[in-house]
Amino acid sequence: MNTFPPKDFQEKITITFDFTEDIVMESISNASISIDTFTGFDNSPGLVLVGPAVISDAIISQEIQGGTPYCIYRVRCTVTTNNGRILVVSSYLPISGYDSLYGENFETNSPA
What domains are there in the chain, each with its CATH number? Predict the structure, then answer.
């Protein structure tokens, strides 16, 4: 499973899922994004998603905001093609914590 770069808990960003290599002579007719907590504690992970997923050719975009510091979320993108195929891609989204305010690196927990 892929991992997005760590996101600061105060950032609002857009993540993308690229289905270009999986879709030939087809188009995406529907896309949805789901999110759950992989590690850490967040009893409302769905609040991290901002609005619906956006389809642009074979690329799906989703705005993300907030998140609980030190949690790692599992973000799952499900698409349906015009031929009825259902494809799923998942990635981890780590949220950096308060240490990032003081110049420490999320992944190594050492000074940046």
Answer: 2-102 (2.60.40)
